[in-house]
Write a structure and sequence with these properties.
The complex is a heterodimer of chains A (279) and B (357).
Chain A lengths: L1 H6 L5 H28 L3 H8 L2 H34 L5 H7 L2 H4 L2 H12 L6 H6 L8 H26 L2 H9 L4 H30 L4 H4 L10 H10 L3 H30 L8
Chain B lengths: L2 H30 L4 E7 L4 H19 L3 E7 L2 H9 L6 E4 L2 H11 L17 H4 L2 E3 L1 E6 L19 E4 L5 H17 L4 H14 E5 L2 H9 L6 E5 H11 L4 E4 L3 E3 L1 E7 L1 H6 L2 H15 L1 H9 L3 E2 L2 H6 L8 E3 L1 H5 L2 H9 L4 H11 L1
Parallel strand pairs in B: 1-2, 1-3, 6-7, 6-8, 10-13
Antiparallel strand pairs in B: 3-11, 4-11, 4-12, 5-8, 5-9
The chains are: A mainly alpha (279), B alpha/beta (357).
Chain lengths: 279, 357
């Protein structure tokens, strides 16, 4: 027994596991289980009727749809941004690099107000579009813009570390062997970045599903048009319908958990022979 | 900077900020000790200003009467959410809400608890006029010069008018607007529910942005420049024009409106737990709003006082219009909720229809 323990190498297993489980249980598992229990204490028929209300289904649809679309978009743009920050030095690049993290720290309302004041029809970008009859926010496109804002750091940071680790010698070797720029990118660089891009997508998507603070300032919040699911849940509570809110919240929780598990499991297949630590 | 130094630096920052926070918490406590009694007034979103003015009147008044100095803190947000916060433990001493349902919720949610209800069941009998010292009604703010010529409820359903309002189902403010529109439809088109439904449906179709509360709606209309007309409480309408720009906005009071009663209650259980002095001060707070001075403050804050002679002196800002009460037209708020705001109600069904188009 004694020798077995020694072979584990790193000490402190029991204490760190104890802290982990205690903390997870206290801050996360107990509240979540309580929520699910509270929801499932109603009969299955009531549950189903609450979840399948057309307004709830519609909100679920646009929430998932826009979270997915915005996550794809953020991931592509985020990869470009990470690339330019890591591979090139330009004036104030450090400053811009630090700027990326702002949406992590800002309260949602700050982002929302900032976006609304620029993209609203009297904001300086919104005004140009308003002149040709296009409304940028207070509709579904507003949801999309809000999500892009909050997702940006997730998409950038998850791929940045991999870009830093790219080996210059591989590129030079490929070039010596006569590979074109396009070939170098798709055959050598891109495969190494896939794990970061994919996990950037997953975290962005997850962030988008639960987003409330920023998006409500730039969506019109109209039912069957631009009401995201988190807003729907808040409304339920303000309509004296705590039961409804609890059930929808639990459903959202389960759906998110299932989706994220699926995405995490699929990592293994997506990553293939790529970077060890991401597997 | 090496890693170890960085680590120590971060540790230092965390410790420093924690200590500062603790210190400021401690110092604010000692500052509060100067007054003998601390009250927390929990109220709805647009009642910030009237609350502040009431405090300014009440504190010297109570000091003169009893020699006790009082400090009052206030918390304002959407009324239904505030009511829920109180019932779930926010230690309010005095509460005012713009809807009967919201105060009733505080009783209903806590009545079955072993430690007893926060407020008595008969809370409406504790102060004059069913515990309602003031009221408001729904009015419009339009842009200066009234470019769209919006005068009455009919104009809100014209095709060329864009309306901004707080959420019609989840805020007291929005519910009152929708209820007034529905009642206007009933009243104007000979009490046919179908006509009222069509009227409300057209209004909802014209409302392109639903704000999360009264103040959010104001912000969207004023700061973001959205919409042609803002639909909110008369008290808020006058504040906007007075404070945010008599040069940019105009008040329109329509011909017909709801008598939106403001209800008040002392959260007896909370106040009594903090001591007799606390409880007496809390009770006196609402006594004060019924005095001439209190009613005057109500009118100056653009709410409608219940004292007729004081109301008469503020005719210019608060004109006489045809008012209906929820009780006269619908019986009680519960019925209104079933008819209009429930999941099977009129509003949901309209949104479903509009969503399919």
């Amino acid at each position: 027994m004694q020798t077995l323990r020694h072979t584990r190498g790193i000490p402190g297993f029991s204490i760190s596991l104890g802290i982990t489980m205690g903390w997870l249980g206290f801050i996360f598992i107990i509240p979540v289980v309580a929520l699910v229990l509270r929801a499932t204490s109603l009969g299955s028929e009531t549950l189903l009727s609450i979840i399948t209300r057309p307004a709830a289904l519609y909100s679920l649809k646009i929430t998932m749809g826009y979270a997915c679309a915005a996550a794809i978009c953020s991931t592509i743009i985020g990869t470009c941004i990470a690339w330019s920050f890591t591979r090139y030095r330009f004036p104030f690049s450090r400053f811009f690099d630090a700027l990326i993290d702002l949406p992590f720290a800002l309260p949602g309302a700050v982002g929302g107000i900032a976006l609304a004041s620029v993209f609203g029809s009297n904001g300086w970008i919104g005004k140009q579009f308003d002149a040709v009859g296009i409304q940028l926010i207070y509709n579904q496109f507003g949801i999309f813009i809000g999500l892009l804002f909050v997702m940006l750091p997730f998409a950038v940071r998850s791929v940045q570390a991999l870009i830093q680790e790219l080996d210059e010698r591989e590129i030079q070797a490929a070039r010596l062997l006569g590979a074109s720029n396009v070939q170098i990118f798709f055959r050598i660089l891109f495969p190494q970045l896939v794990p970061g891009i994919y996990s950037g997508f997953i975290t962005s998507f997850a962030r988008g599903i639960g987003e409330y603070g920023t998006v409500i300032f730039v969506a019109g919040n109209i039912p069957y048009q631009s009401e995201v699911l988190s807003r729907y849940i808040y409304n339920k509570i303000d309509q004296y319908d705590v039961t409804g809110a609890t059930v929808v919240a639990a459903a959202l929780l389960l759906i998110s958990f299932a989706l994220l598990s699926l995405l995490n499991i699929s990592k293994r297949y997506v990553y293939g022979g790529a970077h060890e630590s991401y597997r | 900077m090496n890693k170890r130094k960085l680590f120590i630096f971060v540790l230092y920052l965390i410790t420093a900020s924690t200590l500062t926070t603790l210190w400021s918490l401690g110092s604010s406590d000692s500052q509060n000790d100067e007054s003998e009694v601390q009250l927390l007034h929990v109220s709805f979103d647009i009642a910030r200003e009237i609350g502040r003015r009431l405090n300014e009147g009440f504190i010297p008044w109570y000091k003169e009467q009893t020699g006790v100095s009082v400090a009052i803190e206030q918390s304002n947000a959407g009324s239904s959410r505030q009511a829920r916060a109180v019932s779930e433990g926010l230690p309010a001493d005095v509460v005012s809400m713009n809807q009967y349902l919201d105060i009733d919720l505080i009783y209903n949610e806590t009545a079955t608890k072993p430690e007893g209800a926060l407020i008595p069941r008969d809370w409406q009998s504790l102060y004059p006029n069913q515990s309602s010292p003031a009221s408001s009604t729904m009015a419009f703010v339009v842009r200066k010069g009234n470019p769209k010529q919006i005068r009455d409820w009919d104009d809100l359903i014209r095709d060329d008018v864009a309306v901004i309002a707080p959420n019609y189902r989840s805020t007291g403010n929005g519910r009152y607007s929708l209820l007034t529109a529905y009642s206007y439809g009933l009243n104007k088109y000979g009490s046919s529910p179908e006509d009222a439904y069509r009227f409300v449906s057209a209004l909802i179709d014209n409302t392109g942005i639903l704000a999360t509360g009264g103040r959010d709606a104001t912000n969207i209309f004023v700061e973001r420049g959205q919409g042609d007309v803002l639909l909110t409480f008369e008290a808020e309408v006058n504040l906007i024009v007075q404070d945010l720009g008599p040069d940019s906005f105009e008040v329109v009071v329509p011909s017909y409106g709801v008598d939106a009663k403001i209800y008040v209650v002392v959260v007896e259980k909370n106040a009594k737990e903090k001591g007799e002095a606390q409880y007496q001060a809390a009770k006196a707070y609402w006594d004060f709003i019924y005095t001439d001075q209190g009613q005057e403050i109500v009118a100056q804050s653009f709410f409608r006082p219940i004292q007729k002679d004081i109301a008469a002196r503020y005719q210019n800002a608060l004109p006489n219009i045809e008012l209906f009460t929820v009780e006269d037209v619908y019986g009680d708020w519960g019925r209104v909720r079933d008819l209009l705001f429930d999941d099977d109600g009129v509003v949901e069904s309209i949104y479903q229809e509009l969503g399919k188009q």
